[in-house]
């Protein structure tokens, strides 16, 4: 039975002492660029090799254009405040939990196959990179080499992309941005996977063994575009792919040329999601089964988020639906839209809002940005 949002969301002014969240997740692993002078010692954390992405600079020849002005305005936005708001909005909702039986089975098989990998390609949703980071991935991979890919670059703005490129760039690395539907970034990904694991065959030759194809596993949350990336790499449909979670249900090896083997794997998520702000964002972005959440609740939270984001504000909702929002109660907005367009059917109205966001009709924007440290 669906549990709906209360008539009004929590307002920060009505909360006496809200907790301060600088970030939900632990700091990222120490990351070394491929051009580092020397690799880390064997006892160091796993090395992530990441390349690609555009220059994170938003200026050219010292001139700021109109889009740069928007970027700078977004720079001043405190994304930690949005995370705090999300925490309060989700407290009264039914917990989002989704763990189909096939995931438990294939997760065990995947961990066994990972032992055979030369390199692991971790794919995340570019709209929510942190929320699509599996909390156990680091322990599963150990010291194995890893490539990080932010897919769906066509769904985020240049400012979003620059923010994440800058976030990784501050650690001396760049990130691969890809579009699995159109194939952008896939050939670069294939070349990188081969180059990262090239030392495998160097060691084999040193032992008098013949070279073999590099083994690369593609892992990540459901519906982040793993199979689409493989199909684009192969230039033919070898793996089932559809815009919904749970399509791939078994492990499948495919050959890419003569020197690279790819393992397509089902989406993996934690057995229990304790971080409900991340779970709500997974639902908004359709990276989790829709039976796990109430569509009306999730759409109302999305309205709340769009009312907070500086690049969206209330204008994006007004421009699309010609309905005003007060920025406090997303459920009221869903109800108004239901009356206007769907004969008071709130489920249909909520589904339209989510569908419009997922198709980019509410603008190209990420729901997460790197949280900057607070200055005390």
TrEMBL record:
Pfam families: MMR_HSR1. SUPFAM superfamilies: P-loop containing nucleoside triphosphate hydrolases. The keyword Cell inner membrane does not apply. GO terms for molecular function: GTP binding; GTPase activity. Residues 216-275 form the G domain. It comes from Centaurea solstitialis (yellow star-thistle). It comes from the Eukaryota. PANTHER family: DAR GTPASE 3, CHLOROPLASTIC, MITOCHONDRIAL RIBOSOME-ASSOCIATED GTPASE 1. GO terms for biological process: mitochondrial translation. This is G domain-containing protein. GO terms for cellular component: mitochondrion. Keywords: GTP-binding, Nucleotide-binding.
């Amino acid at each position: 039975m669906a549990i709906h949002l209360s008539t009004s969301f929590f307002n920060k002014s009505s909360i006496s002492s809200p907790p301060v969240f600088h970030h939900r997740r632990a700091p990222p692993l120490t990351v070394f660029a491929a051009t580092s002078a020397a690799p880390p010692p064997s006892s160091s954390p796993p090395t992530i090799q990441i390349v690609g992405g555009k220059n994170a600079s938003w200026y050219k020849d010292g001139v700021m254009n109109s889009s740069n002005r928007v970027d700078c305005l977004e720079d001043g936005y405190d994304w930690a405040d949005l995370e705090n708001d999300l925490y309060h909005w989700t407290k009264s909702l039914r917990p989002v939990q989704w763990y189909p039986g096939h995931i438990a089975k294939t997760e065990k098989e995947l961990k066994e196959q990972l032992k055979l990998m030369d390199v692991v390609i971790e794919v995340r949703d570019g709209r929510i990179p942190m929320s699509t980071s599996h909390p156990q991935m680091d322990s599963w991979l150990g010291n194995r080499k890893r490539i990080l890919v932010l897919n769906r670059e066509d769904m985020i703005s240049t400012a979003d992309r620059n923010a994440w490129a800058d976030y990784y760039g501050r650690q001396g690395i760049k990130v691969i941005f890809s579009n699995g539907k159109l194939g952008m970034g896939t050939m670069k990904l294939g070349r990188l996977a081969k180059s990262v694991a090239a030392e495998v065959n160097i060691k084999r030759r040193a032992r008098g063994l013949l070279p073999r194809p590099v083994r690369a596993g593609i892992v990540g949350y459901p519906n982040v575009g793993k199979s689409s990336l493989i199909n684009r790499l192969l230039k033919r449909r070898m793996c089932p792919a559809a815009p919904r979670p749970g399509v791939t249900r078994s492990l499948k090896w495919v050959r890419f040329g003569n020197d690279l083997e790819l393992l397509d794997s089902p989406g993996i998520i934690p057995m229990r999601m304790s971080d409900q702000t991340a779970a709500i964002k997974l639902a908004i972005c359709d990276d989790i089964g829709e039976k796990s959440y109430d569509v009306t609740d999730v759409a109302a939270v999305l309205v709340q988020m769009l009312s907070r984001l500086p690049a969206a504000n209330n204008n994006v909702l007004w421009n699309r639906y010609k309905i005003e929002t007060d920025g406090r109660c997303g459920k009221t907005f869903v109800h108004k839209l239901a009356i206007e367009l769907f004969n008071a059917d709130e489920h249909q109205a909520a589904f339209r809002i989510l569908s419009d966001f997922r198709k980019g009709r509410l603008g190209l924007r990420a729901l997460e940005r790197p949280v900057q440290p607070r200055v005390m």
